[in-house]
Amino acid sequence: MSFIHDDFLLQTKAARDLYHNHAEGQPIIDYHSHLPPEDVAEDKKFDNLYDIWLAGDHYKWRAMRAAGMPEEVCTGDADPYDKFLAWARTVPLTIRNPLYHWTHLELKRYFGIDELLSEDTAKRIWDQANEQLESPEFSARNILKRFKVEVVCTTDDPADPLPHHEKIVADGVETKIYPTYRPDKAFVSSDPAALNAWLEKLSGTSGIKINSLDDLLHALRKRHDDFHAVGGRLSDHGLPYTFSTPCTKEEAEAHFNNEREDILLSQEEQDQLASFLFRFSAVLDAEKDWTKQLHLGPIRNNNSRLFRNAGTDIGCDSMNDDRQIEPLGRFLDSLAKEGQLPKVVVYNMNPKDSMGLATMIGNFQGAPTPGKMQYGSGWWFLDTKPGMEEQINILSSTGLLTTFVGMLTDSRSFLSFTRHEYFRRILCNLIGQDIENGEIPNDPSLTGNLIENICYKNARNFFGFQI
After folding, report:
1. Which structural domains are found in the chain, ordered by start?
2. How much is the pTM?
3. What is the pLDDT of residues 221-260, one digit of tens each?
4. Which residues contact 154 (CB under 8 A, 6 or more apart)?
């Protein structure tokens, strides 16, 4: 039997029934990803297995460094095959890391390759995959169609124009590709020169000269409207903690004016201005019935030498231990008491905060939206089999698993849609085990609906996409 077989991870009959009858055939709504929209707009054809699989994958780079591979084959300028060969040498060392499962799921589902990747099999797998990549079915748009991907939400800076999304709409691409509004650069006050350069870019994109705080708010609202016009229904933020320091508009104006003069704000002033702008972004979301995503807890670019040489998103980020729960509560409460609370999905990186965050968001549930406050799927270092199981268990214990909007890829690769399959198998195995233990009724009308809703229907109904 091959490693990736029909019943991979499904340990009971109930789990197998749930997966094959209710999860396996569901379409995919990938509501948070980092896929480049230009690749879909251009219907990109990939040059080789490195191009489609390894380029930009900081998960793999991190593992390769741990295996002693030189930086040249990670973020450096080594030959694509040499980089792939370094990854092949690393894979056997990733046993019990999710990369081992992901790697072989991707080889099996995309290329029909059953062999385990290693240095010995690398050349054969490279040649087999590259031969298939020459086929039209491996273009960006055809991959989306092949995996029944109905929606992909990319992650987009409001200072960037949206020509790729507009072209995708104009071309009538079957998979809907929607932008996600991520204005985080507006909140960064630690580098006034960089912030002012970003404000100039936003000014050009929005057509609004930004000379005052009101001008900035006007420009952010204008871009929010532009995103909505091409189908965007989510915002997203990657924050060390929730910005929730009280700040009046007068204080925010003073801080903004100092920034425009390249004056470095104190840490308290930075938090005040960030909190004012962050709250404004939530009001925009509430006005349009959007969903706000909060990715909480990373500490980034810890290896300063690698950061200088290779930049951001290279695998040098970690989970932080900032206070998370009280600031999130203050933020949500400030919105709820004014009737301005949007739908929210909270993802956390540090497991010490998991139960606390799940119980905090439960304070703000309410009509008319089931599961208005979502405790999001396992993210980043928690995007593992035990991490997903813990997230499902915490959500089940503190809220309603039945309203959960399910999985996403959070990926830059077109070979990552098997992560939905991975999650679905883990979910079905967990529920199947409960059935076998007599903890859940063996009633397909109950459990089958649960699985179908989590895998697809809840996300379709929750986010309000035009599908």
Report:
1. 13-46+142-463 (3.20.20.140), 47-138 (1.10.2020.10)
2. 0.96
3. 999 999 999 999 999 999 999 999 999 999 999 999 999 9
4. 33, 34, 35, 36, 37, 165, 177, 178, 179, 180
